[in-house]
């Protein structure tokens, strides 16, 4: 006698008044991240509020503490958050200036929490979520790291300076003259400086006062040199160094991950060695210990584009099954966000055929076998109606003077002039008379205006949940008991994958040494096990999904595969007792079922999942 429970039953329905109260409690905890950027203290208050209010649903932990004494907060979200099952990872703000990513990551976390609090229902206002997708998002485990570089983000929020990742420099070699970011006029911001110079390469455009554009041959004086707002160290009294993004901060976290890493000078910002930075090391240590992570969203700004693997080779050298899955994600990405999805190698290498080294998505895809991609939030180019070049990355560099003027006018009309700042005269201790101000890219270029954040958050959250519906879903059921005589009973079990992708995840991940097939353990409590052995190799179970344009959707030969997603297991037992069947795998966690046999059946039994 058995009683079956669905693999991931939704929480027991609550009274409408209880649901309304929980919904209101969640709203009351909101700290405003959908309309502005949170400081580290505010973000800490937000994640701690969620974990305190919903302890059975939200776990808060720290992956590491930074040199600035800030925690790398990680949210684990799901019913029974300590129970391992297929998971979706979201991280953001590894680049200090890309602050909008933190808002999107927190919004995804809040939306997943809300789905759980709605007692199995899809909220009425979420007409962008289907019931199956909402159910899949509830069944998944979510790991959300809203800010990978809290020290860097805090520095940018405070000063507005240009900063790639973390405000530190561990280089030991003797220093040549370099620029050190510093607020020179006391306004609390470190933007840029302009210095009049007859050999200057910039001019101020009359169409947008204050906006600097590259000089043309028919321009007239005054001409300017443009430098970071700051000072030169060491200063020899005459040498002005070339500005560099890494002049006073040495490492780009997104060049410090272990896959395809290369040192300086081959890869700028690489760090001293793979995982030399505590932030990237903490992420790798956690994700390596959690092979159940199958989906991975790496949030950046800006551009309005999704960037998928491979980053090191063209599409014709990619696993065809992986590519078909990414085509499906691309279709959803276009539908949910309006952003295109492009190959990292084919459309997002700054120099054609010269791939980037050591980025997080390559690590997630190649070493962790994840369906991983980057999202560059904020489609500024579309706001300016700029044409899309053949290679998407050229949008960032192929800008004419007319395009720059359009950007300045957009700032005045749609961004309250946050970006193009007035120039203020300053007596610089090294360069003499300069002006500071100019472009503040953190407020309009790198990040959207505050009134655009909410829409971006909602679109990306829907896409993440849609992709979470692709995760595998392990089911284990007792389907029959058959008396065999001589006090023996045959117990039949069905082990199956009810999810979209295989229990090994994406097709290329099957080759990873750690990605072992499913194993079943048979445990007899009372009575005795006749067959099989206590440990049975189940093998990997395929999912029902195959992506787009894999050939399975052929008009002239549409066929299903055979019994690739299911295995039947017969256990023969003697006497009376309870048999437990536990099935586990690195990517799906474990599920178990118990059933009574022999005279114990008269007492009743339950299946536990």
CATH homologous superfamily label of the largest domain = Zn peptidases
**CA distance, first residue to last residue:** 16 Å
How is the main sheet built?
Answer: 8 strands, mixed
Q: Outline, from the CA principal axes?
A: elongated
Stated plainly, the CATH topology of the largest domain is called Aminopeptidase
Explained architecture:
- The protein has twelve helices and 24 strands.
- With about 600 residues, it is an alpha+beta fold.
- The protein has three domains: about 50-155 and about 250-380 and about 445-470, Aminopeptidase, CATH 3.40.630.10; about 170-250 and about 395-440, no CATH class; about 475-605, Immunoglobulins (Immunoglobulin-like, Sandwich).
- The strands form six sheets. It has an eight-stranded mixed beta sheet, sandwiched between helices.
- The longest helix has 19 residues, at about 450-470.
- The chain is elongated, with a radius of gyration of 28 Å.
- The two termini are about 15 Å apart.
